Amino acid sequence: MGDQVTVCAKIPVELKMKLIDYDVNISKIIRQALQAEVERLEKEKLMKLIGEASKILQKIPNEDFIKSIREDRDSR
User: Fold this and answer.
1) How many domains is the chain built from?
2) 8, 14, 24, 58: which could join 19 in a potential S-S bond, CB 3.0 to 4.6 Å?
3) What is the pTM of this model?
């Protein structure tokens, strides 16, 4: 892995003790949770961009799409 930084969080002592009892790799769980959150946020951002692009594309008549595709095919 490349460069790394340390992050910290305060949790209840009882939770920490249970994690130790169950031999949980806390660092691994934190990394997985943070990665999952980043992936969720990226997907959310992409969905928003797709929605915006869809609104723009709906304004273009179908005939223009067809014409553009045919012109592209003919130029190859």
Assistant:
1) 1
2) 24
3) 0.71
